[in-house]
Amino acid sequence: MSAQDYRHIVRIVGKDIPGDKKISVGLTHIKGVGFNFANAIIGALGLNPNNNIGFLTESQVESIEKTLKDPSSVNFPSWLLNRRKDVETGVTTHLITSDVAFTVRNDIEREKLSNSWRGFRHTYGLKVRGQRTRTTGRKGASVGVKKGGKVLPAGAAPAAAPGAEAAAAPAAGAAPAAAK
Would residue 59 count as lying in a domain? Predict the structure, then answer.
């Protein structure tokens, strides 16, 4: 492979991947493709896993894209795909790019509308998978402990702030204070 065949950026399924990455690592830059799935694609297509992604030919890139868009054509095992037995269609597929976020968002909305326990937890922003919530997972600004002053006995009125008498307005009908 000559330096003329090398591409610094390779575009696969709408994602720009640096050409200096190994094929398995470069494919993991695509959302929905992990290291195991990338290695399965490399093995199914017979590519050299030690090659950099910048040295792939145009036909090899097209075959990778075809496999990513339709993994059922290669007969991957169902446990390797990320969407098994879809709730609506019942079909096992593999989602990539923006389809992953879109499907997860729809799944959460479906849970919320079904009034399931998971939907309830999602609605109120609580942990869903049984984690503890007593001390962790708190949101919002931290509330510090205010340093307290003297503790007053029951029924005693709190003292006014220093200099409060001078700042208070004179009572109605009182003579103005003489200038010094």
Answer: yes
Which positions ≥6 away from 139 have C-beta within 8 Å?
Answer: 125
| Burial profile 141-160: b = 16 or more Cβ within 10 angstroms, e = fewer | eeeeeeeeeeeeeeeeeeee
To the nearest whole number, what is the mean pLDDT of the chain? 85
Sign of CA dihedral 148, 149, 150, 156: negative
Q: What is the pTM of this model?
A: 0.67
* Cα distance between residue 160 and residue 80, in whole Å: 71
CA dist., res. 27 & res. 172, Å (int): 82
**CB contact at 8 A, 68 and 13:** yes
57 by Cβ neighbours in 10 Å (0-12 / 13-18 / 19+) ranks as exposed
Backbone torsion region of residue 115, taken as left when φ is above 0, otherwise alpha when ψ lies between -120 and 50, otherwise beta: left
* Structural domain range at position 21: 3-77
pLDDT 10s digits, 21-71 = 999 999 999 999 999 999 999 999 999 989 999 999 999 999 999 999 998
In this structure, is residue 139 part of a structural domain? Answer: no
**What CATH number did the domain enclosing 7 receive?**
1.10.8.50
DSSP-derived 3-state class of residue 171: coil
